[in-house]
Amino acid sequence: MGYTVPAGSVVAVAPLGEEPAVGEIVAYRQRPAGRVIVHRIVGREGDGVRTRGDANASPDPFVVSEDDLLGRVVWASPLLGRLARLLRG
Q1: Residues pairing with 11 in the sheet
Q2: Cα dist. 82→8, 9, 10, 35 in Å?
Q3: Under a CB-based contact definition with an 8 Å cutoff, are residues 48 and 66 in contact?
Q4: Which helix (H) or strand (E) holds 70?
Q5: What pLDDT shows up at residue 10?
Q6: 58-88 residue pLDDT tens
Q7: Distance (Å, rounded) from C-alpha 5 to C-alpha 39?
Q8: Cβ neighbour number for residue 41 with a 10 Å cutoff
Q9: Pairwise CA distance, residues 74 & 48, whole Å
Q10: Which residues 6+ apart lie within 8 Å of 1 measured at CB?
């Protein structure tokens, strides 16, 4: 993600509940790799959202389907992310 949520951070994600808004930070499952990405919503397109990492100059080159959205990021800790990496070795 970058500045707001540094790569490797531990995050807490809450269910969407309502339609996600531009400016919110969301977690989504990237297809086809299946890895989880945390980026900010910068626009809506059709049945999905356009996202961008805060450290990136341009939006992601794909639209994220609402079916792939996992939820809103409500808390993040870079420190716990570093600790988890150390414990995993």
Answers
A1: 76
A2: 7, 7, 9, 19
A3: yes
A4: strand 69-77
A5: 92
A6: 999 999 999 999 999 999 998 888 888 889 8
A7: 9
A8: 22
A9: 21
A10: 7, 9, 25, 38, 39, 40, 53, 54, 55
Distance from C-alpha of 62 to C-alpha of 51, rounded to nearest angstrom: 8
**Amino acid at position 41, single letter:** I
The model's pLDDT over 37-63, given as tens digits with 9 standing for 90+, comes to 999 999 999 989 999 999 999 999 999
CA 31 – CA 86 distance, rounded (Å): 28
Q: 61: which 2 tokens?
A: 């080159």
Q: Which amino acid is at 73?
A: V
- Per-residue pLDDT of 13-40, as tens digits, reads 999 988 899 999 999 999 888 899 999 9
